[in-house]
Amino acid sequence: METMDLELKKILDKYEFASVQVLHATKEGVDLHLSLGKLDIEEDIDVTSDTIYRIASVSKIVVALAAMKLVEEGKMNIYEDVSKYLGFTLRNPNHPDKKITLEHLMTQTSSITDGFDDPNKGYDAVNGPSIHVPLKEILTNPDYEYYNPKTFLEEAPGTRWLYSNFGCGILACIVERVSGKLFTDYIKEILLDPLEIDGGFRAGQVVKKDKIASLYDYDDNGYKKLRTGERFVKYMFPIYPLGDNFRGPAGGLFISAKDLSKIMIMMMNKGTYNGIKLFEEKTILEMEKVHYDGFIPDKQYAAKGLQLCHLPFYTKEPLLGHFGTAYGLKSFMFYNRDNGYIFMCGGSNYKIIKERNISEIQNDLFEYLTKKYEK
Prior knowledge:
This protein is an alpha+beta fold. It has 12 helices and 16 strands.
């Protein structure tokens, strides 16, 4: 464990947490990486710099990178009707004359929802069971048992922001259709393997499975284990035909903070990491620019790039990245021109700051890190 200064220690001492990773990097590399707590409390296993987390919605950045690689290669266009790539016509039934684009999917403005927590129909209903749910059926067939008319907003594509995990899953299916490869394999081929990252969108792809952190809920009765590495591996979704693997990509990347920093530093360097050119500069710049700056009720951020949130609260120049929340975990990855920040926590006594909709520990760390590193 690296030595932390007294101010950072004072911040972290305010909170109960199962495990915490705090990382800062510049374009040149990592210069702060703290690993605190337990990978598994009951087994008394310490967290290390190699501990791997399921990082929840920070994963969406990596899904967008996969799509943008195909855009870079001229195989897709972000303003094109996604029907061209899916192999079937996708429309919001309330606006059958309006196309849905890749840009819509990556800015959460596609008008496609998760189904509003309907336990019987739509994305939310099928996001747990390991059953084959053809993407075409759940999106286009009103007679299909899991079709949900609430999947589609009354508003037209491009006119309203609404957070959608389903939209990210559809994006991964488009990657499969266009690349001709499983999304989980394609992202390893173009990004994870070149960067020598031990991780993936399937827990079974992780080499050091014993490094996967357990995740915990925390309340007045203490910690409750919600997920273990063993459970993540055991309950993976089966592999379905190309274009039907929409469950998992929106939040399912398993990766350590140290390995995630390679992706972050690559983006800070506009496509290159340690001499390895993975993307054209124009590709990263396209992801980073504002593609939607309308009303975002979430309050976590002010505008949206292509799966990159623009966070304006802590620095003169907005930070770009994403938050993650699932199974007790909270995470973030944000960067700007000169500094990058990663946080992963396997469970804590989170309290939410309503006016910003982020947890107090995340807010305190943002304030500490940006004060320390931003000029």
